[in-house]
């Protein structure tokens, strides 16, 4: 684990693989940390990529900043980190909230992105009901702590069949959630309640796009992924059957195969 200070926030991150290799940046979701990408870091660093995975502000080992953290702030943190690491161009992927942060980074610096990986996420602006729900959940986390919420949503974060089939994965997911600061998670929820619409910028994306979704995902159903695939001209869609909201952990071999094929396409297209 390494750290760098960006705009007063100490960002914890892993940076594995050859410093001279092409760069793959992966952004975790809520309420997790960078360890959710361990199967991908190990695979693609061994395959010759430089893989960078940060903890977002408020999560993991990065500074907790209470209040409200908009997606654009998360995006600036990651861009600032990559600037400090002298990384100019990169393939960028994210899951759930991480995918929305990826869309915001793409909106800010599209010319630096060689390819986009959008896993179990959606580009549409938050609805009024969604705004109320996220702010209410933020209040709940500050009042109750993270455990009641974490235990409640575990069967939605990973498919119930995953909990039975791969208890170690379910324990990892629960452990990440329990290790998350309520203040950091609440700040992110309040920021996401105000998230903009990314449809227009994705429709104009010059880089190729991979959309991945778990076939049993309740948060971002397959139908949402199909809608996103339809609106992004240069996109591919992979549905991972039997997985819930975290296919990269629930079905890492299938997820990695889809990502490997996409990275090959990115490399061949340059």
Automatic annotation (TrEMBL):
Gene3D superfamilies noted in UniProt: alpha/beta hydrolase (3.40.50.1820)
InterPro entries, A to Z: AB_hydrolase_1, AB_hydrolase_fold, AB_hydrolase_sf, Epox_hydrolase-like
Domain AB hydrolase-1 span(s) in chain numbering: 24-258
MF (Gene Ontology): hydrolase activity
Record's keyword terms, sorted: Hydrolase
Pfam families, alphabetized: Abhydrolase_6
Superkingdom assignment: Bacteria
Name recorded for this polypeptide: Alpha/beta fold hydrolase
């Amino acid at each position: 684990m390494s750290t760098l200070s960006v705009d007063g926030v100490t960002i914890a991150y892993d940076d594995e693989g050859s410093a001279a290799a092409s760069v793959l940046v992966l952004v975790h979701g809520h309420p997790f940390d960078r360890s959710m990408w361990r199967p991908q870091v190990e695979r693609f660093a061994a395959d010759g990529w430089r893989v960078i995975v940060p903890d977002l502000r408020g999560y993991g080992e990065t500074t907790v900043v209470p209040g409200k953290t908009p997606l654009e702030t998360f995006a600036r943190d990651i861009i600032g980190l990559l600037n400090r690491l002298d990384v100019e161009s990169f393939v960028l992927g994210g899951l759930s909230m991480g995918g929305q942060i990826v869309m915001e980074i793409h909106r800010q610096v599209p010319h630096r992105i060689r390819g986009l990986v959008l896993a179990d996420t959606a580009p549409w602006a938050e609805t009024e009901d969604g705004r109320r729900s996220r702010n209410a959940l933020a209040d709940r986390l500050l009042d109750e702590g993270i455990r009641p919420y974490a235990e409640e949503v575990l069967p939605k974060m990973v498919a119930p069949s995953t909990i039975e089939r791969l208890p170690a994965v379910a324990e990892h997911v629960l452990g990440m959630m329990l290790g998350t600061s309520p203040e950091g998670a609440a700040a992110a929820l309040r920021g996401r309640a105000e998230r903009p619409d990314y449809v227009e910028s994705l429709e104009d994306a010059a880089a190729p796009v991979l959309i991945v979704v778990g076939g049993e995902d309740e948060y971002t159903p397959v139908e949402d992924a199909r809608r996103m695939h339809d609106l992004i001209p240069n996109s591919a869609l992979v549905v991972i059957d039997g997985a819930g909201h975290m296919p990269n952990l629930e079905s890492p071999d299938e997820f990695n195969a889809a990502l490997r094929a996409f990275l090959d396409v990115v490399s061949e297209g340059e």
